[in-house]
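Exercise: predict the fold of this chain.
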Amino acid sequence: MSLSIIIVKIVLITFITLETFNIFVLYFQPTFKYANGVGVFNAWERSKKDPPMYDFANYLVKWVAGSKVIFILLLIVILVWGKDLVQIISLGALILATITFYFKLYPLIRKMDKNDQITPKGYSTVLALMILSFILAFTGAFVFGLIMYLK
């Protein structure tokens, strides 16, 4: 196994591990303020005072977690049974999918942060930097893996 494929696998395994932890947080400890738990949103606690709104918010959180399960299981299949090129290309898909955060989600969370709807203050910036670090890791492994694969 080449160094480039080892790096691709490490990046995929790291992402799978982090997202799996996030899935557990969303399913079992949604109020957690780390691992992208919804506890950072002040509206989460306020929604509990309005049972239909809380049920709706809770449903959406579980829906996100369920979508992540599908996504992670597909990545595991690619990691275990996919050929080297498929694993490299999957990083390209991750790059594109992760960049979408900046189109709709980031402006919304930044607005909520500025309007004191998120605790701790500045969480939107931390999240944006964390997601950027994923994109950079995916891009580095993708470019290196693709160059080495094509040699």
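Check your answer against the key: The chain has a mean pLDDT of 96.
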